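Before relying on records like the one below, remember that each one covers exactly one chain. Contacts with other chains, cofactors or solvent are not represented anywhere in the record.
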Amino acid sequence: MESFYTLQGEGFFQGVAAYFIRLGGCDVGCVWCDVKESWPLDAHPLVKSEWIAAQAAASGAPVAVVTGGEPAMYDLTLLTESLHMKKLRTHIETSGAYELTGQWNWVCLSPKKFKAPKPSAYLRADELKVVIYNRHDFEWAELEAAKVGKACKLFLQPEWSREKQMLPLIIDYVKAHPQWRVSLQIHKYMNIP
């Protein structure tokens, strides 16, 4: 769908310079999705993995973040091989709704209630990022956290349109449950992609 050089705005690598590769196509259907134009699979042209990797390397970014849509809908083996050949770290942001392919340096699993992650996604997750839309999501977050490995970093992130209401609750929750961290969409505060 698009690619661009910016800063990682969320999660463990927040603030790190990164080249984003947004793949089109998603059938997860998050009501709060801020990139709904990524959903139609046939609305975006096919691009060669080697060309994507060359563009990412030319940006000077140390990290390539593959996101979507839902990037795991695709076999990402060739893309990750191409990015590694260009000496880039490979990160993916996925709902886990599909089996993960490719070689990843970092897997951010952001599960959604509407389409459950594959069991293998929990095993591969380096980071669990749960979007908090309402109070009931804290209980769901704990159920999801029980499925990942002990080394997985745990993040709670307010859904952007409800950030004012949910952030105070998240702060209190993290203080009471310090195994969690707060993730904010800092790119939105900085008005960058």
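The first helix runs from residue 49 to 59.
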